[in-house]
Amino acid sequence: MNNFNYLDSIYNKKAKLYKNINIVKNVQIFDLTLEADGEEMAGLKFKEAERIEIAKILDEVGVHRIAIIGNSPKPTRDDIKSAEKILDLNLKARTNGFVKTKEEIFKCYKIGLKEVVILVGINKKAFTKNTSPKDILEKSESLIEFAKNLGLHVSFMGMDSTRTSPKFLKKIITKLEPLFDEYVIGDSLGRITPHGIEYLVKLIKKWTNKPIHLHPHNTTSLAVANSLTGVLSGLSVVHTTINGLGEFSGLAATEEFAAAIDIHSKISLGLNYSKLHEASNLVSKITGIKTPPFKPITGKSALAIPETEETQEFMYNLNLENKIDEGMPIPPHLIGKNVMNLPYFIT
């Protein structure tokens, strides 16, 4: 287990949220790098061998759940074939499919998946012309019952939950709660803030005792902050992707969220940071999307010592006294790096 919590600011612990902390016993990362959300960034499409390679490294990282087949567009024969081969790997992580139709649910069942996430848009402002709230409820109920009759574990994702009226959101959850196993808050357009997610998680927990997920888009760079706040408020599962891939501005980055939890909560996700660096590099190589050097955790210069003479001297003196960790944002050894190999550090 990673013991990063001593790095947390003393002032965080004085905040109201921390005093009323409500962390569940087993918080999990649900990585969607291989799901359509990951591949839809900038028109990405993984080859079969690449999907298998990514699935293997995610399992070595220690993520708890992996989506191995997506929903948009509906899975191709190649997608299905890749998913079958990933299932043959017998990964430690739970494997899932993201679905929107009965056809997709049945395909997941046929290839051997035991779990699905069913996506239905529930924000009335985004309903198409001839769609009513009643239609959405009936559609959702029908999809969940179909999956449950196949023996599948069902997480129901209310897409655009964070823009849905409280009245209709309550109706959706209380009506469907006897059917689904877990509920997913879809922040589909990244409109919520940490303040809002704290309120929303606590509100939903009044309507269901079942595990709650967050699907956090990064529209205004709040995906990790929202996810951390959600966990402190009682979320069980957070959807992430390696390097923050995903539709529009992407999702919370797996590596950044893991560090945020390990530092700023009273728990550890227990991921292997050396393998996280490998996963980040692998996904960057496969996608052709370079990791910015200043990117938290996996960026080449994320922990680089500034080149100014004053800072170099300060850090050098700290190092002589074996106190260099006190001058670093995160002690490098905690995330699989060696301080002596950091850029611009003069010994």
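^ that was protein a. below is b, sequence first then the tokens
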Amino acid sequence: MKCRYCGHEIPEGMLYCEKCGEEVRIVPDYNPLDDMLTQQIRGAINGDDSYDDYLDYQAVSNTDPRRKSAGRSTGRNTGRTSGRNAGRTYGRNTGNTTRRRNTDLQRGNTSRNLSEREKKRRQAERKKALRRKRRRCILLIMLVFLLAAVGIGIAVYQMSYKGIVGKGNKALESKEYNAAIEYFEKASDKDNTKADAYVGLSKVYIAQKNLSRAESVFLDVIKEQPKNSDVYQACVQFYMDTDQKEEIPMLLEDADDSVREVLGGYIIEGPEFSLDDTEVFDDVQELSLSAKDGYTIYYTDDETEPSINSTKYTEPIRIGEDETVIKAIAVNKKGVPSLPVEKTYTVELPIEDAPAVSPSTGQYDSAMQIEIKIPDGYTAYYTMDGNDPTTASKKYSGPIDMPSGETIFKAILVNGKGRVSGVTTRSYVLETE
């Protein structure tokens, strides 16, 4: 079919011209005069004059303004056309009538098809509109429920342990310390087993430069809940943050096994000593210390507590005469120390059994001098009244004149460590004229 306006070929089923955009007119223009003329001819042939009354040209003219002139022309020429050309007109119109009926049938079928398609299209659009409306209602209901759930969730969260702790942290950030303390204490009252509130409370006291009170927050809870590993861990972190790592081993020393298992990474093994402290040595010793790879060892030999500020172990330690107390710690890469390991070593060097004194015991008739042989590193003490000498007795400084008469002379040696030798005794009798 071609477009009546531009002549473009229109595919079957299209309702408008793709080239000019005009609507396709499937049903031809209807002309009621053709039907009127056909009826008149039939009446003339059959002798039936009633068809004159059937025509109402004015009505036809009024119904279709475009056909007013056609109606008037029909009125004027009806009799003339019927009289002169009845036979010719009948023959021509009979064929036209057949074609018109076919056209009417096609037009009717086309109209019904178009009507059915239009009806289905409208029904489909109504269904789509209804589905869209339902979806909008469902989405609106879901949105309302979602907003309600969010509102309820926010309200529940605000009243929950985490919500209260969160308020405390915000107050802490704003330096509203009193409000922060109230929030953290309220949270701990709500659940005293969780550590978050205690951590926040300690941070408040840290901000206020009160470390002892910040520490007591954890220690008080640990005393009441000795198996609460979360609070232990929070306390350990407090010591790490405040550079009090030396407190960690003491905190975990008597902790429950379950806690020590959780915090095993903070439990550092102390250094090992190469010498047995139960043995008494008779010579100067060298002590070696060892620890796990990556650990650093610090020690003291003056009975003070070791720390990372003490002497760092780099070579064997010399253990001299007498008692020596060695205390040492091992420190891991995080700076966490072990508990101090303490050992006491005793070295007793051999000492002279007794000092050598001359002259020997006997009677003498001429003046004599008493001498004590003193080895290096010793001091001699003596008495002449028969009592055993001590370091409080007279100190020997050189030869002593032998007194007249009978004399009991006793002497000892004392080394640099205060060890005392045996006593040497001499009995003298000096008789001079």
